[in-house]
Amino acid sequence: MSEQISSDEITLKELVQKIKEWVRYFKSKLKIIIIFGFLGFAVGLTQAFLDKPVYKAELVLALEDKGAGGGSYAGIASQFGIDLGGAGGGAFSGENTIELMKSRNIIEKALLTPVEIDGKKDLLINRFIDFNELRKKWAKSNRPGLENIQYVENEDRKLFGIAKDSVLYTVYKGIKKTDLTVEKIDKKLSIIKVTLKSKDEIFAKYFTEVLVNAASDLYVLTKTQKSKKNLEILEERLDSVKRELDKNIYAAASTKDQNYNIIRAKGNISFSQKQLNVQVLTTMYGELIKNTEIAKYTLMREEPLIQIIDTPIFPLEKTKLGKIKGALVGGILGTFFILLALAVVRLKTIFLTKL
Prior knowledge:
Elements: H1 2-28, H2 30-50, E1 54-63, H3 71-79, H4 96-101, H5 104-111, E2 114-117, E3 120-123, H6 124-131, H7 134-140, H8 161-179, E4 180-184, E5 191-198, H9 201-258, H10 269-302, E6 306-310, E7 317-319, H11 323-354
Antiparallel strand pairs: 1-5, 1-6, 1-7, 2-3, 4-5
């Protein structure tokens, strides 16, 4: 037992001795530590001066979901073979909405959207390239020609070529990975917050708004395309039946006039046939009007599907590395790394000595 205690005392003494040796070692390098700590302090302070503010644009929207079916109208419409749709969600249900807002299709569509800034109209992708000074970087890179890239409104995407597609894809990946956040405020609610961080205040605001508009347009198109197709078919059929009805009404009246003084029943056969056609077409026309009104109601019921609650307003919230914080962080990091480097050098020396 006493041997164990003695062994523990020796180990503790050795540990204390080791700590004292390390302290003496670092004290002997105090000048170097102070110099690097001061350098880190200076670098952090310089970074704080040079660091550009990051602007944050936030847009809050409510995603409307009318649910499946269309109540009594849906029941009436089904009797006439009309599908009102309205089944919930599809590709835009649940978390899919968030992913669709961050999809390549939506982000690239937003980047290729023109906006008017200070009386000048330009695509957002061109502004992104300009404020990030990408042309200067491309000019110094091993990929000449990129600095001359300019995106034009309504340009055929098929004619972009590899260079333009590559730049657009790179910008999309960067925005999605570091700049854009789309999240539900509450899992139980259909309220979504879209946040974009950018070094350019104007880009942050307009891109956020255009992105949501692009997603909204796609959402409306997807949710209403069946109803629109039904309405178009019904309206086309309504016009066709109306033309036939007018034609048969005129023909029946003309036939009646021609056979006005004819007593024999055979002479009225043609009039009776045309009169029957008028009755049939009148019934069809009435049912088509009813179905068309139901289809119009369905389309109206499904729009709008996205309601904007809050939009980004100038001036946007901005964050910037403070001078005191930058200097302190720089000083701490500079001191930490020099201590780490000195420790590695000493351990290497001890290891070589034992060999």
